[in-house]
C-alpha cells in the first residue's frame, strides 16, 4: 500500500511541477489576448469618431469636441481621451490622469500603442494620427489596463484549478495501474516461490509474466539448464575439467577440507626428516582434488617432525616441492588421541559401521573426548575461513559432530560431509548410545554423501527412527530444525591416470623385478593383497581360501605364491594386534602345511609400502584379492585396475565392498565362504588372457570415467547448485519481505 501511495504522490508531484511551469505562460497568454482586445476597441473608437472630430476641428467647435470626447469616454473601459497637437494636450476629458503629458504617448505616422504607469495603474495609450486644418496631431485614447491584470489573475486561478483536477486524476490513475501491476507481480513471485518449494520445474517462458517474476523463472531455468549440462558431462573428468567446473561454478569460493589423517606426514628418522604419504583411501582420493582446487586442508599433525615443519600459524605449504595448497595442522594430546581416535572413532564407530563381527566399544569418556576434539577442529576451520561462506568438505567418521559445530559458527557455509565407511541399517545403528547426537551433528551438513544408495537409505532409516524430522523420500532430503540436508551417493574413486603409474617400468620388467625381490622363480604365478592390517579387510579369510585352493587344487603348490602386504595400523588397539598375530600364525601354518623346501605359498610383508612399490606389485601380479568383510568402497580394487595398462590380470572382489557395484567384471566372491573363494582363485589362475583382457578393459573404462575428479566434481557442483538455490531463496525471501512491508 505504501508503494501505491508513493507512486500516486510522485505522479501528483510531477503534475504540480508541470502546472507551475505552464501557469505563467497561460497567464501571459490571457494578458496579451486582453491587450489586443483593448487595442481593437481603441481602433473602433478612433474609426467611429474620426470624421466627426475632423469636422468639428475644421469648424473649430471646441465645445462640441469636448462633449463628443466626454461621450466616447463613458465607455467603461476607456479612461480618457484627448488630442495632442504637438506637445500640447487639447480637449482632455475629465478623467485624464493629471500626470499624463503628450510626451508620454509614442506618436508616429501610423497608429501606436504603449503602456505607461499613471496614478498607480497600468494605462494603455493608443495614439492615432489625425489631420485637420492642414496640421497633423494625434488622437490619444487611454485605457485602464488594471482589469487585464484582474482577468489574468482570474484566468490563472481557473487554469490552476483545472490542471490540479487533471493532476489528481492522473495520480489516481497511476496508483490504480501500479496496484494492478503489483498484484500480478506478487502473484508471480508467489508462484516462483511455490515452484522452488515444490521443486517443480520452472514455468515455461510466457510474455505476460510480469518482469520480476519472469526473472526469477529465468534464473531457475538457468539453474535447471546448468544441472542438465553438468549431468551430461559425466565423462572426461580430469584435474583441468574439475578446475574449469570450479572456476565456472564456485569461482571466488573458499574450499576447506577437514580430515583426521593428514596427506603429508613429516617424521624424524636417523636420516633426518622424511616425508610419508599415509596408506589411506581417504588421502589417496582427496589429495589430488585439493591439489586441483587449492585452499586449505585441516588435519591432525601426527608425524614426529610435524611441529618442526610448520610456520607460526601451524601451516605448511604442500605438496613439498610443488606447493598448491596449505596444510593446517591441529595438535592433539595423547589423551585426546586415545579418547577420540582410538576409542570413540576406531573402537566405537568403525566396528559399528563395518559389521565385521567385532563388538563395538562405547565409552562415555571417549565420547566426551570425541566431542572436545570435534570442537577443536571447528575452531581451526573458523580460524582458517577467510569468508563467512566457505565450502567446507568434512571427511569421515572422526567428525560426526563437526558439521553442526561449523554450521552454528558459520551459518552461511556450504558444508559437504562425506562418510567414507559404510552406514549400517537402522537396527544395528540403534545400539549406539550416541545415535541422536551423531545424526544431529551430521544434519548440520548441507550435503551428506555416502558411497552407495544403500548407505543413503540406511542413514535415512536411522533419521526416521531416531530424530524428529521431515524426510522427503523423492529428493532424499531431510529437513531438521528448519534446515535441509541432501543425502546423496557419491562413489569415491582414484585419480586417472594415477600419479604412481607415471614412473613405472613395463609389466614384464615389474614382474621380473618383484619376483627377484621376493626370491621367486620367474615363472611363479603371483597373487597380491595390499591394505592396512585391518580386521574389516578379510585378510584371514583370504588366507583360508588359499588354504582351500592348495588343498583342493594341489597342482598349484610350488607354482603359486600369494604376497600379502599389510601396513600396520591402529596397533594400539587389541583387536588389531590380535589380527596381526592371528594372520602371522595362519600364514606360518599354511606355509608349513603346503610349503616345501624353498617354497612358501604365503609371503606376509608387514610394513608400509609407498605408492610406487604398490603399483609395481600390482603390475607384477596375476591376480589381486580384495576380500573385505564390509567396505565403504575400497580403492585398492580400483588402483589394481588402473595399474594394469596391459589389460591383463584378474581381480577377485568381495561382494561386500562398495566397489563391487561398479566393478562387476571382477570375480565377485563372498569372503565368508572360503571354499567358493578358493574356487575363485583357481578360476583366476586358469582364466584365458582374452577373457582377462575383456574384463579388465570394461573395468578400466569404468574407473577412467568414474574417477576421483568426477566424485569431487559432482559433490562440488551439487554444492554450487545448492548455493545458487540458497541465493535465489534469499532473494525471494527478501523480495517477499519487502512486498509484505509494502502491502
Ligand atoms: C580408510 C578408510 C577411511 C578412513 C581411513 C582411516 O582409508 O576408508 O574411511 O578414514 O582408513 O585410516 P587411519 O589410518 O587414518 O585410521
Automatic annotation (TrEMBL):
InterPro entries: Glyco_trans_20 (IPR001830). The chain crosses the membrane at residues 158-181. The keyword Zinc-finger does not apply. Keywords: Membrane, Transmembrane, Transmembrane helix. PANTHER family: BCDNA.GH08860, TREHALOSE-6-PHOSPHATE SYNTHASE. Belongs to the glycosyltransferase 20 family. This is Trehalose-6-phosphate synthase. It comes from Microvirga terricola.
Amino acid at each position: 500500500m505504501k508503494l501505491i501511495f508513493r507512486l500516486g504522490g510522485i505522479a501528483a508531484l510531477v503534475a504540480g511541477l508541470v502546472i507551475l511551469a505552464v501557469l505563467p505562460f497561460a497567464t501571459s497568454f490571457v494578458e496579451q489576448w486582453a491587450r489586443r482586445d483593448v487595442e481593437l476597441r481603441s481602433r473602433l473608437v478612433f474609426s467611429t469618431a474620426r470624421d466627426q472630430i475632423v469636422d468639428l476641428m475644421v469648424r473649430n467647435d471646441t465645445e462640441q469636441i469636448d462633449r463628443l470626447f466626454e461621450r466616447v469616454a463613458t465607455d467603461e473601459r476607456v479612461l480618457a481621451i484627448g488630442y495632442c497637437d504637438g506637445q500640447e494636450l487639447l480637449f482632455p476629458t475629465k478623467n485624464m490622469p493629471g500626470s499624463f503629458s503628450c510626451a508620454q504617448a509614442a506618436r508616429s505616422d501610423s497608429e501606436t500603442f504603449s503602456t505607461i504607469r499613471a496614478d498607480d495603474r497600468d494605462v494603455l495609450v493608443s495614439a492615432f494620427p489625425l489631420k485637420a486644418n492642414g496640421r497633423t496631431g494625434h488622437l490619444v485614447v487611454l485605457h485602464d489596463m488594471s482589469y487585464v491584470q484582474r482577468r489574468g489573475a482570474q484566468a490563472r486561478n481557473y487554469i490552476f484549478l483545472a490542471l490540479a483536477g487533471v493532476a489528481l486524476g492522473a495520480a489516481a490513475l497511476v496508483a490504480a495501474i501500479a496496484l494492478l501491476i503489483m498484484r500480478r507481480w506478487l502473484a508471480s513471485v508467489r508462484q516462483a516461490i511455490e515452484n522452488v518449494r515444490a521443486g517443480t520445474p520452472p514455468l515455461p517462458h510466457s510474455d505476460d509474466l510480469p518482469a520480476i517474476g519472469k526473472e526469477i523463472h529465468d534464473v531457475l531455468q538457468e539453474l535447471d539448464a546448468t544441472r542438465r549440462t553438468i549431468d551430461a558431462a559425466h565423462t572426461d573428468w580430469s584435474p583441468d575439467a574439475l578446475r574449469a567446473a570450479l572456476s565456472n561454478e564456485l569461482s571466488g569460493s573458499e574450499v576447506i577440507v577437514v580430515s583426521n589423517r593428514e596427506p603429508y606426514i613429516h617424521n624424524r628418522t636417523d636420516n633426518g626428516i622424511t616425508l610419508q604419504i599415509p596408506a589411506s583411501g581417504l588421502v589417496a582420493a582427496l589429495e589430488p582434488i585439493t591439489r586441483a582446487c587449492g585452499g586449505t586442508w585441516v588435519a591432525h599433525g601426527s608425524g614426529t617432525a610435524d611441529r618442526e615443519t610448520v610456520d607460526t600459524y601451524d601451516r605448511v605449504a604442500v605438496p613439498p616441492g610443488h606447493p598448491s595448497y596449505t596444510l593446517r595442522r591441529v595438535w592433539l594430546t595423547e589423551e585426546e588421541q586415545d579418547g577420540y581416535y582410538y576409542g570413540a572413532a576406531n573402537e566405537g564407530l568403525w566396528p559399528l559401521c563395518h559389521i565385521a563381527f567385532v563388538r563395538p566399544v562405547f565409552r562415555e569418556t571417549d565420547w566426551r573426548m570425541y566431542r572436545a576434539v570435534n570442537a577443536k577442529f571447528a575452531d581451526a576451520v573458523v580460524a582458517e575461513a577467510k569468508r563467512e561462506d566457505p565450502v567446507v568438505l568434512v571427511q569421515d567418521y572422526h567428525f560426526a559432530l563437526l558439521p553442526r559445530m561449523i554450521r552454528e559458527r558459520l551459518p552461511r557455509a556450504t558444508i559437504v560431509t562425506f562418510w567414507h565407511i559404510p552406514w549400517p541399517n537402522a537396527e544395528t545403528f540403534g545400539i549406539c548410545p550416541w545415535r541422536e547426537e551423531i545424526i544431529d551433528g551430521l544434519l548440520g551438513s548441507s550435503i551428506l554423501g555416502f558411497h552407495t544408495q544403500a548407505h543413503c537409505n540406511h542413514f535415512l532409516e536411522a533419521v526416521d527412527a531416531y530424530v524428529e524430522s521431515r524426510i522427503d523420500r523423492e529428493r532424499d532430503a531431510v529437513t531438521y530444525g528448519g534446515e535441509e540436508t541432501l543425502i546423496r551417493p557419491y562413489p569415491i574413486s582414484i585419480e586417472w591416470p594415477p600419479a604412481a603409474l607415471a614412473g613405472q617400468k613395463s609389466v614384464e620388467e615389474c614382474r621380473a623385478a618383484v619376483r627377484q625381490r621376493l626370491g621367486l622363480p620367474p615363472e611363479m604365478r603371483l597373487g597380491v593383497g595390499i591394505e592396512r592390517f585391518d580386521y574389516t579387510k578379510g585378510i584371514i579369510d583370504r588366507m583360508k581360501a588359499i588354504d582351500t585352493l592348495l588343498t583342493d587344487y594341489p597342482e598349484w603348490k610350488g607354482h603359486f605364491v600369494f604376497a600379502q602386504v599389510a601396513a600396520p595400523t591402529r596397533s594400539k588397539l587389541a583387536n588389531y594386534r590380535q589380527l596381526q598375530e592371528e594372520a602371522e600364525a595362519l600364514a606360518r601354518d599354511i606355509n608349513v602345511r603346503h610349503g616345501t623346501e624353498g617354497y612358501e605359498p604365503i609371503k606376509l610383508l608387514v610394513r608400509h609400502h609407498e605408492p610406487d612399490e604398490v603399483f609395481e606389485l600390482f603390475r607384477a601380479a596375476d591376480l589381486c584379492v580384495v576380500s573385505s568383510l564390509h567396505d565403504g568402497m575400497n580403492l585398492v580394487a580400483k588402483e589394481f585396475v588402473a595399474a594394469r595398462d596391459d589389460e591383463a590380470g584378474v581381480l577377485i572382489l568381495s561382494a561386500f565392498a562398495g566397489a563391487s557395484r561398479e566393478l562387476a567384471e571382477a570375480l565377485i566372491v563372498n569372503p565368508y565362504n572360503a571354499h567358493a573363494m578358493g574356487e575363485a582363485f583357481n578360476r583366476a589362475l586358469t582364466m584365458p588372457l582374452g577373457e582377462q583382457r575383456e574384463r579388465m578393459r570394461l573395468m578400466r573404462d569404468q574407473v577412467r570415467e568414474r574417477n576421483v575428479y568426477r566424485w569431487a566434481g559432482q559433490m562440488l557442483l551439487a554444492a554450487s547448485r545448492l548455493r545458487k538455490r540458497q541465493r535465489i531463496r534469499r532473494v525471494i525471501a527478501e523480495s517477499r519481505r519487502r512486498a509484505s512491508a509494502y502491502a
